[in-house]
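My hope is that you will study the protein record below before we discuss the fold together.
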Amino acid sequence: MCRWLAYSGTPIRLDELLYQPRFSLIDQSMHSRYGVETTNGDGVGVGWYPADSPAEPALFRGVGPAWNDANLREIARSTTSPLFLAHIRASTGTAVQQTNCHPFRHESWLWVHNGSIREFAKLRRDLLLAVDPALFPTIEGSTDSEVMFHLALTFGLRDRPVAAVERMAGLIEAVARTHGVPAPLQMTIGTTDGDRVWGFRYSSEGHSRSLYYSTETAALQRLYPDNPQLHRLSEETRLVVSEPLGELPGAWQPVPESSYGVIQKGADELGHFEPAAP
C-alpha cells in the first residue's frame, strides 16, 4: 500500500518530518513497520501551502523511490510551511508514473490515500461515469485514488467534506455489489483545503490500515517539559500519520476504526464514518 502524513501548525521545514525523525516518512519508504509492504518505492510526493499564499498549494511529485530523490531532499531542507501533506507510494497495480503519485491537487485542495479499491479494473468504468463531467478532464492518471478524489469532489467535498467522502465510499461499495466484488474498499485518506485537515479511516471489511494522530501539543509539553522541539510548537500543531514517526510515549493516538477527524482552529473533531448508499 502506501504511507502518508499531514501536518498543520507552527511553520516548520519539511525535512523536520520527512527526514529527521527516527521513523521518518523517508525511513518508512524503506522500512515500514505497520504497512502491508515494508518497502514503498513507487513514487513520492509532497504538497504544501506557502505561508504567503495559503490558497495556492505547491506540489512536488517524483516517480523514483523517496530515499533516493535528491530533488526532494533539496526542497525539504529549504521549504517552510504551516500545512503540508506528504506521501510515499507502493503501487497496487497501476503504472509508476508522475500523474499517479500523490498528493493529487484540485484548486486549493490536496488529497492522499493509502489502500485500494479491490478489482478496480472491473469497477473503473462505472465509477468514472459517476464523476462530474466538468471535473472529468482533470483526471490525469490511472489510479483508484485519483478517481476517489474526483468522486468526492463530485459529491461536494468543497462544501461538506465528510458527507462527500461518505457518499464516495457508498458509491464504490454499491458498484462493487453489482459486479460481485466483496469488501471492495480499503482506505485511509488525508485531505485539506489549506485551512482545515480531514483524516478518514475505513474499510469494507472492518479491518482498516493503520492511522494515528498526535496528542495535543499542550499535553505533550506538560509531559516533556525539557523537550525543546515540543516547546517551540503552538497549541494548534497536530499531525496525522500512517504510522508513528517516533517512540515518544504518549505522543500518538490510534484513529478508531470507521472514523474521521478534523484538524482546525479551536477544538478538533473526531466522529463516526458511515458510507452513504447512492
Summary: The radius of gyration is 18 Å.
